[in-house]
Amino acid sequence: QVSLAESGGRLVQAGDSLTLSCKALDRLFSAYVAGWFRQAPGKEREFLASANWNGESTLYADSVKGRFTISRINAKNEVELQMINLKAEDTAVYYCAAGNHVSVSSEFYYSWGKGTQVTVSS
Fold it and tell me: Which residues contact 3 (CB under 8 A, 6 or more apart)?
């Protein structure tokens, strides 16, 4: 288990960009796969992006390809999600996770943050 904390979520306007950060308290986080998911009210948890320890292996949901970018900042035990051209449908609670496999499945992620709210006004 790795203790994770997301930050950066806020109210933005449609078309804006925003970067979310996830910081781990354990420096060993750099050796794990990192992932980002989101969940909107009444919706299933949705996979967004994942990356291995050095970011050379990445995977993105089709719905966010070209708009969202996952990056690792291992020196700070952090992972970021850079988002551009935000849309109203991006409104959700965003979660980071640590796991052992670059995958769309939440089953491969064992540690989760508590989430950060992103609200995109229409």
Answer: 24, 25, 26, 111
Please check whether residue 24 is in contact with residue 7, taking contact to mean a CB–CB distance below 8 angstroms.
no
User: Could you tell me the CA-to-CA distances from 31 to 24, 25, 36, 86, 118 in Å, in that order?
Assistant: 12, 13, 16, 30, 28
Evaluate whether 49 touches 70 at the Cβ level (below 8 Å).
yes
pLDDT digits (tens, 9 = 90+) for 45-65: 999 999 998 889 999 999 999
pLDDT for res 74: 83
Q: Which long-range contacts (CB under 8 A, 24 or more apart) does 44-51 make?
A: 45/95, 45/106, 46/92, 47/104, 47/105, 47/106, 48/81, 48/94, 49/81, 50/99, 50/102, 50/103, 50/104, 51/79, 51/102
Q: Which token pair is 111?
A: 């540690």
